[in-house]
């Protein structure tokens, strides 16, 4: 059901009041009716006893004049019916007697209404002076009681209607005032846009009933901010990584078009373009892979992996690049674990590529593999410039640049490695001192363990 919450609250409030007051009026009417019935019954029975006592005190040679027995009680009437079901003349007072009194069970309180009055009566069986049974009916005019009850009920209903109207207004105001935190929430959230995703709502400014919702909303803003930062990072990083090779290809091709070139020159240019395109393809693949890893959409295919064998194949590949700097790659230790071999290969390849790039000439790169409790640990060490301690804490952040006399961008390799390790339940860190840098990764031996 759609509509205003304030309207719904007002309707529920007034409807609840209506039901409660209606029940109260019904109870009042029932209780008052019972009270008057009990009171009138006791009164009529007492007058019946009075009439019977008066009859017993009359001599046998005197006629009974029923009309004079209760002359001091103008609201009370006495009628008598003999065994032949005939009204004794001296008791007739022009009243219409219902059949329930004439023929019904004695002692039963009977209510009825004429055109102008309300009556209650009780019939009893007694004997006359000759020992004959007759039905004695005592009737009381209860018009005053009935009018009082009807008038009270009518006044209560009118009062209820007036209070219903007043409480509807009060309920509408209370609902409007009670929903003011929602209006405040709506106003504050309407001011949040793509440039103010860092905004957080203060839970203490809202009632307790809304604080959990505010907390959830703030968490949602945090996730949105993180997602937007990721999107901005990927766009900026992609533009940064693509700009240089695209510019290089553009300049090279423009130079080739400025004059006649030999087929060998065209071949060299095409080969160079292919290298740049392969680099661009790898960059796009890495960015997409990191996006999937950070959004937890990456599929992990676990299998038994021999870490030494995997590292050896990568070392053979990177040794060709290391030979240009006369750098030797050495592997120490061995271990096995259950993980995704393709992702682990990408992580180790990133670390080796980074080590070869920054290693000093005529030095060594050492890949150390070991086990520690239920984890395996692998480190890649190279001799080269020491990384400042402050940079070590930010080295795995997106698009981080460090300044060693000149600003150098380290690319997305280390950021990608951290994202992939998080997916595999592992962690990565770096130590650098005395012209030596070691990158460490730690992974659980089984895929159901996550390192903190």
UniProtKB/TrEMBL annotation:
Localisation: Cell inner membrane; Membrane
Keyword set, alphabetical order: ATP-binding, Cell inner membrane, Cell membrane, Kinase, Membrane, Nucleotide-binding, Phosphoprotein, Transferase, Transmembrane, Transmembrane helix, Two-component regulatory system
Protein EC: 2.7.13.3
Catalysis performed (reactions): ATP + protein L-histidine = ADP + protein N-phospho-L-histidine
Main location group: membrane
InterPro entries, per database record: CztS_silS_copS, HATPase_C_sf, HATPase_dom, His_kinase_dom, HisK_dim/P_dom, HisK_dim/P_sf, Sig_transdc_His_kin-like_C, TCS_sensor_his_kinase
Record-annotated Histidine kinase domain positions: 237-447
Pfam families noted in UniProt: HATPase_c, HisKA
Gene Ontology CC, one term: plasma membrane
Membrane topology: Multi-pass membrane protein
TM helices/strands, residue ranges: 12-31, 157-179
Designated name of the protein: Sensor protein
Lineage: Bacteria, Pseudomonadati, Pseudomonadota, Gammaproteobacteria, Alteromonadales
């Amino acid at each position: 059901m759609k509509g205003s919450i304030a309207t719904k609250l007002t309707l529920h409030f007034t409807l609840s009041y209506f039901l409660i007051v209606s029940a109260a009026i019904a109870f009042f009417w029932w209780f008052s009716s019972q009270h008057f019935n009990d009171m009138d019954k006791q009164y009529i029975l007492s007058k019946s006893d009075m009439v019977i006592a008066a009859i017993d005190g009359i001599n046998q040679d005197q006629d009974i004049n029923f009309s004079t027995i209760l002359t001091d009680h103008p609201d009370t009437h006495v009628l008598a019916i003999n065994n032949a079901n005939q009204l004794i003349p001296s008791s007739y007072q022009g009243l219409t007697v219902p059949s329930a009194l004439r023929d019904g069970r004695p002692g039963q309180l009977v209510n009825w209404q004429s055109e102008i009055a309300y009556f209650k009566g009780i019939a009893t069986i007694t004997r006359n002076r000759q020992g004959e049974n007759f039905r004695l009916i005592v009737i009381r005019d209860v018009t005053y009681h009935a009018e009082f009850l009807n008038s009270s009920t009518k006044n209560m209903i009118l009062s209820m209607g007036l209070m219903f109207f007043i409480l509807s207004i009060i309920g509408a105001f209370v609902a409007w005032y009670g929903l003011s935190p929602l209006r405040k929430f709506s106003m504050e959230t309407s001011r949040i846009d793509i440039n103010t995703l860092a905004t957080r709502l203060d839970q203490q400014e809202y009632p307790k009933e809304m604080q959990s919702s505010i907390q959830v909303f703030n968490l949602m803003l945090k996730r949105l901010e993180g997602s937007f930062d990721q999107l901005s990072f990927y766009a900026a990083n992609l533009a940064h990584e693509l700009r240089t090779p695209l510019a290089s290809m553009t300049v090279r091709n423009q130079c080739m078009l400025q004059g006649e070139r030999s087929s060998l020159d065209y071949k060299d240019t095409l080969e160079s373009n292919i290298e740049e395109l392969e680099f661009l393809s790898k960059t796009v693949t890495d960015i997409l892979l990191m996006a999937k890893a950070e959004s937890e959409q990456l599929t992990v295919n676990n299998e038994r992996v021999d870490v030494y064998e995997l590292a050896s194949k990568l070392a053979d590949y990177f040794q060709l690049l290391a030979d240009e700097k006369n750098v030797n790659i050495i592997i120490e230790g061995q271990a096995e674990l259950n993980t995704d071999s393709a992702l682990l290969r990408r992580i180790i390849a990133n670390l080796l590529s980074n080590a070869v790039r920054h290693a000093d000439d005529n030095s060594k790169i050492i890949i150390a593999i070991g086990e520690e409790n239920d984890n395996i640990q692998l480190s890649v060490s190279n001799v080269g410039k020491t990384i400042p301690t402050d940079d070590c804490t930010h080295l795995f952040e997106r698009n981080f640049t460090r300044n060693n006399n000149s600003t150098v961008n380290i690319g997305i390799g280390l950021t990608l490695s951290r994202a992939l390790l998080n997916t595999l339940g592992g962690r990565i860190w770096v130590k650098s001192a005395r012209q030596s840098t070691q990158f460490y990764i730690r992974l659980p031996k089984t895929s159901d363990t996550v390192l903190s």
